[in-house]
Amino acid sequence: MTDFDYDLFVIGAGSGGVRASRIAASHGARVAVAEEFRIGGTCVIRGCVPKKLLVYASHFAHELHDASKYGWTLGDVSFDWNKLRDFVASDVDRLERAYTATLDNNKVEHFHERAAVAGPNTVRLASGREISAKFILIAVGAWPVMPEIDGAEHCITSNEVFHLPALPKRVVIQGAGYIALEFAGIFNALGSDVTVVNRSDKILRGYDHDLTDRLLPIMQARGIRFAFNRPIRRVEKSADGSLIVHAGEGDPIGADVVMVATGRRPKTDGLGLDTASVALGSGGEIPVDEYNRTSCSSIYAVGDVTDRVQLTPVAIREGHAFADTVFGSMPRTTAYDHIPSAVFSQPPLAAVGLTEAQAREVHGHVKVYTSDFRPMKNMFSEVMERGYYKLVVDPQTDKVLGVHMIGPDAPEILQAVAIAVKAGLTKAQFDETVALHPSMAEELVLMR
Question: Which sequence spans correspond to the domains of the chain?
Answer without folding.
Answer: 6-143+265-327, 152-262, 341-445
